[in-house]
Request: fold
Amino acid sequence: GAATQVFKIFNSYVTIDGSNASGTDRSLTIENTSATTPQVVVIGSTGTTPITNVTIKNCNIINGVNSSSAVIVSDGAAPGTAGYFNNITIQNNSVQKAYIGVYNIAVVATGNGNGLLITGNDLNTSGANSLRLVGLYVQGVDGATVSNNNVGNFTTSDASNITGTWFATGTINSSISNNNYGPIASTTGAPRGIVVSSALSNSNVIISGNIVT
Reply:
């Protein structure tokens, strides 16, 4: 069946702030309890018009099954396919029970995806609500920052390579810094902390200050 979401954000300048105290408490839980291709939040563009200045922060984001992704930044009409976006912030959330915790995919174009900031999130819940395959996935983005996240405690039931952060095809001018990866254990495919597969020379991807265990 078609995917279901709790929030579909298709307009620019939208903020979801789960703090009751204008601070960093995570007082809002957004959960999709569906078992049929659930997603929790989709931030999606319409056609070639970028969606800009959207922030999701200070929330507990829990998906219904670990075979579907929780937070998706992409095209809006077909979530999970490449879209157009700028200045999207995912900050200080706990993301749980997902195939990929935060999935970001942009059409490869100069400046597209610029200002994507994924910072201070916890993707390290263990047990039934743990992540399955990838913590933070970025594809096609020109200008992403992934910093100060805690990623680990994946399930060990996936035959693919369990990965903390993956910068995939076309990701350029981006950084992965001061994140803590681990433990990442797998009984099947080899676990990976950080992967960069931009498939471009001079991708200008900076990796610094991370801990991988």
